[in-house]
Amino acid sequence: MVNVRDHNWFGPAWDVTLEGCEVFSVPDASSWSALDWVNTASSGVSVDADRVSVRDCRLRNVRFGISVSGRDARIQRNVIDGFSADGLRGLGDYGLFEYNRIQNNYVGDPPDGNHDDGFQSWSLGPGGVGTGEVRGVTLRGNVFVNDWVPSHPLRSSMQGIGCFDGFFVDWVVENNVVITDHWHGISFLGMRDSRIVNNTVIDLDQTSPGPPWIMVAPHKDGRPSQNVVVRNNLSTDFSLQGIGIVADHNLEFTNAPALFVAPPYDLHLRPATSAVDAGSVDLAPPLDVEGVPRPQGPGIDLGAYERCPGCSTRFFTIAPCRLVDTRNPAGPLGGPGLAAGSDRTFTIAGRCGIPSSAKAVSLNVTVTGSTADGHLRLHPGGSALPLVSSISYSAGQTRANNAVIQVSMLGELAVFAGQASGTVHFILDASGYFQ
Questions:
Q1: What's the pLDDT tens digit per position in 186-225?
Q2: Which among 41, 131, 312, 422 is placed 20 to 30 Å from 237, CA to CA?
């Protein structure tokens, strides 16, 4: 759907930024069949040019998410929600992929012959795939979730970070979270002079396929991986082979509830577990996946999350930005007006500079054009209705109020219309977020 190409036919391209875009095949794919996910879904963003940035975008209901073959790409704070092939592809040198959220992978084989990955890379050399190198890529703070509804009938088994045709040289893989129903959590076949540090890998449902591993293995042609540091990781399995592989301060676990607050989705550490203060400061990233400084105790915690019960939530201001206006034409952030007694969910992560890690947003809520007296109740998407309203109004009245609303782990908030009949329009303007 969105292509940035540096090509003789299309003309040169470089230093392009895509920011705050909404990209989707259809607004709602809930009625799609397996074949629809293969044949109807379009791919989101394709980058074949150097120094291209894609940030704070939201891609929904796509085949491939963001695919990059140019050098020096910056892929930051994007949400890819609903995909049937690969979420991210990074084939160019010196790319940065950080703080993206990749979630809800649908349709496996059959009918889809693609092996789905949250992130995938491979080298390309004179002899074809697997005969070159991909150099200097950083994967930092990305969250890969196979599916938020494990019982979904079209759920696929997503490989987390799958890099099978090296060599992968001078890579940094840190602070990533992989929640998947597959053996490949983080896998590199042919890796050199790289590090895999402070990642968390967990099985989605404790059944086959899986449990997922962190793997460093020889190239498919038999050449060994060399000089790789694997440190401070939490994973359900490890498989490490090569020359000069340094593996320390890692924990292979089987009892997830003993370690985490609410596995498999909330992977913050419980107090006084074997993962707390058990890591090494050597090569550990200074911040965790949520931006919490390390360490918070006597030592570095294992995995992507640093336990920090005393950390205060921080507020970040943004330029006033319109998130939702139901007076606009029908769309995911537009009309129609909200019917009496109905509850509508909006995805705000990736909009207006609000990251997927935001815990709450500061809003100005305006109501207008109501056909009856009533109130709006705003709440995290997927949660129970709160008992108190965010704003009350009379029929025909235009009225505004400020509110701070928690968002769900999916970056969603919902709006409920508490009126006896008719409809109401509302506008949500963001001024900041809490993280």
A1: 999 999 999 999 999 999 888 888 899 999 999 999 999 9
A2: 131
